[in-house]
Amino acid sequence: MYTCRIQKILLPNNNLSGPIPREFKALTSLMELDISNNFIGGRLPESIGDLRNMRSFNAADNDLI
To answer: CA 2, CA 38: separation in Å to the nearest integer?
Structure first.
């Protein structure tokens, strides 16, 4: 059995829209998330705060509440 540990998601300026999925809480190895300059809206999921390995988070210039 293989496992994939995602450490970085870098998607600035990609015309992403919609909310940040709650399923992000399953990405426990995530260290860096950059979703800046998109059209992401809604509330920031509280579960983002549970990602203990997160060192860098950039969601600037979106429509988050």
So the answer is: 32
